[in-house]
Write a structure and sequence with these properties.
Elements: H1 20-30, H2 34-41, H3 45-57, E1 64-68, H4 74-80, E2 85-90, H5 93-103, E3 115-119, E4 132-138, H6 147-156, E5 158-169, H7 175-196, H8 201-212, H9 216-225, E6 229-236, E7 241-247
Parallel strand pairs: 1-2, 1-4, 2-3, 4-5
Antiparallel strand pairs: 5-7, 6-7
Binding site for S-adenosyl-L-methionine: 72, 90, 121-122, 138
Pfam families: Ubie_methyltran (PF01209)
GO molecular function: demethylmenaquinone methyltransferase activity
């Protein structure tokens, strides 16, 4: 860059301040290759995690389901196969545009008619109270600057008796496995990310955000404090990921 050249306003990566504009801009920049990169870096486990999340949501035809932090809509497509009306919401316009290109009305074959894409801030959702039968969020709550506010917003837009499923990176309970996981994140993942990602710096943020994120029981407490009941979780892949479930109290 020459001394007179303007600095780029596009953030290469977010930081633990989780400024919404920086996080959104970071995801805009990696949207095209995001799903492929995730599959490579997770050693294919992302597909298993997505299938487990879909089973936990248990979508049914005729239901209305919110998939928040949907990215390009891979998780939303899995839910929409049930026949449910699925809203894929995200605060990254770039991710949503990629999702529309792949699965929207202009996609080959006309896309998926029961899937729609909406730009949304997790802390101020643009939906009515009690609008959804189920709400879910995969690997997105960790990127929200006020996650407990987001959990309250998810409660607000869910019908009484409706379901919550949160799939998020967590902390392996086994100390030996935790060390192996840390070695992979600190030494292997950055090297692989430089090869397969258009923005390897974004995956430095991934490591930082995982290390900074609370453990399974802490997140359970946050979900209860937001007003959800029947809160439970189960570990996937040795606790690398945890699947949290809860229900909105009946009216």
């Amino acid at each position: 860059m020459t001394p007179d050249a303007p600095e780029s306003t596009e953030p290469n990566r977010a930081d633990l301040g989780k400024d919404p504009a920086r996080v959104s801009g970071m995801f805009d920049g990696v949207a095209a290759g995001y799903d492929r990169t995730n599959t490579v870096l997770s050693l294919g486990n992302d597909r298993m995690w997505r299938a487990a999340t879909t089973r936990a949501v248990a979508p049914k035809a005729g239901e209305r389901i919110l998939d928040l932090a949907a990215g390009t809509g891979a998780s939303s497509v899995s839910l929409a196969r049930s026949g449910a009306q699925v809203v894929a919401a995200d605060f990254s316009p770039g991710m949503l545009a990629e999702g529309e290109r792949r699965h929207g009305a202009a996609a080959p074959g006309g896309g998926i008619p029961n899937l729609s894409f909406v730009e949304a801030d997790a802390t101020a959702l643009p939906f009515d109270d009690a609008e959804f039968d189920a709400v879910t969020m995969s690997f997105g709550l960790r990127n929200v600057n006020e996650p407990r506010v987001a959990l309250g917003e998810l409660l607000r837009v869910t019908k009484p008796g409706g379901r919550l499923v949160i799939c998020e990176f967590s902390h392996p309970p086994s100390s030996a496995f935790r060390k192996l996981y840390s070695f992979y994140n600190d030494r292997v993942l950055p090297t692989v990310a430089k090869t397969v990602s258009s923005n390897s710096e974004a995956y430095d943020y991934l490591n930082e955000s995982i290390r900074d994120w609370p453990d399974q029981r802490t997140l359970m407490g946050w979900i209860r404090e937001a007003g959800w009941t029947g809160v439970a979780y189960r570990n996937l892949t040795g606790g690398i990921v945890a699947l949290h479930r809860a229900t909105k109290p009946a009216a």
